[in-house]
Design brief:
Elements: H1 6-13, H2 21-30, H3 37-44, H4 48-58, H5 72-97, H6 110-128, H7 135-144, H8 148-158, H9 160-169, H10 174-182, H11 186-196, H12 201-208, H13 221-236, H14 253-257, H15 262-278, H16 280-283
This protein binds fe (ii) ion (FE2) (2 copies).
The site of one fe (ii) ion has 5 residues, from helix 11.
């Protein structure tokens, strides 16, 4: 194992800004189905970009409201919990994924689009397969599953030739090659970052094991498998493929266990495409 970068990489984790507390507190409030709207407003009012994004999404073509909504309270009520969660988390991680990420990406914004696509896919699978998981955790884990790439990006671009060689000559999945060349893979680094941000164990585990869900601790298996499958499916559809996109095997655990047929998967793909086109406004949040 190459030890050259290990200390630097561990130090880089601490250079990533803390996860926005406004988002954590707001998510906590909306996780209670009977939450008081004023409590939420107290929290999100403090954040200009979240406030702007809530209003922007509410006034977007997707909602097609007959008049412009300018009150935050009204917008929150219109959006409802599912869209609020989407807009809160998306605003919260946008800056993170917007950092220059030469290491993995072919074009700017690719990591961000992949994250959104994976989060929407996970949400579609969760609902249609009626998995016993909490929507907040699913959306958060999916959105952040590749967050370790933000840390590793610089190192991957420096050592890309060696990593690529292992992937092409020895047929290693990309994360294995990262581990051999850099000492860590992006999944482990993402898991460590989630722990540092004090995310719940299930989310940290799903991030850490998204390329090897079979190794996740038992209580977090299902969430890890769901994130792995969502990631695999969006990569297959070409959503944010990046340099590593085609060098992973499709994770079959959940497909096999739930005995999903080709038809089921096709139906889920259609649902996902609908969600994606509805979510254009959310994807464009990065431009606010
Ligand atoms: Fe990944
Ligand atoms: Fe991914």
């Amino acid at each position: 194992m190459n030890m050259k970068y290990m200390d630097d990489i561990l130090a880089s984790i601490h250079e990533i800004p803390p996860f926005p507390q406004v988002v954590v507190r707001a998510m906590d409030i909306i996780s209670d189905p009977n939450y008081v709207v004023n409590d939420l407003l107290e929290v999100i009012r403090l954040d200009q970009s979240i406030t702007a994004n809530v209003l922007k999404l509410c006034n977007s073509a997707y909602f097609g409201l007959p008049r412009k909504v300018s009150s935050l309270k009204e917008a929150v009520v219109y959006l409802g919990t599912v869209h609020l969660r989407q807009v809160l988390l998306s605003s919260g991680v946008k800056d993170l994924y917007d950092r220059p990420d030469k290491g993995y990406s072919y074009f700017a914004g690719e990591l961000w689009q992949h994250a959104i696509a994976c989060a929407l896919m996970a949400q579609v699978l969760l609902r249609h397969l009626r998995l016993p998981l909490e929507e907040n955790s699913v959306f958060t884990a999916a959105l952040l599953h590749d967050v370790g790439k933000v840390v590793l990006s610089t190192y991957v671009s420096r050592e890309f030739a060696d990593i690529e060689k292992l992937v092409e000559k020895e047929n290693l999945p990309f994360h294995e090659a990262e581990r051999q060349v850099l000492g860590f893979d992006h999944a482990e680094i993402g898991g460590r970052l989630a722990e540092l941000w004090q995310f719940p164990d299930d989310i940290a585990a799903a991030i850490r094991f998204h390329h090897q869900p079979e190794k996740a601790p038992k209580p977090h298996c299902l969430l890890s498998e769901l994130i792995a499958l969502s990631d695999g499916l969006v990569l297959m559809l070409g959503c944010g493929t990046s340099v590593d996109g085609l060098s992973y095997a499709m994770p079959h655990l959940l497909i096999d266990r739930l005995k999903l047929k080709r038809n089921d998967i096709e139906m889920l793909m259609v649902k996902f495409q609908e969600e994606m086109s509805n979510a254009r406004e959310m994807i464009d949040i990065r431009d606010v």
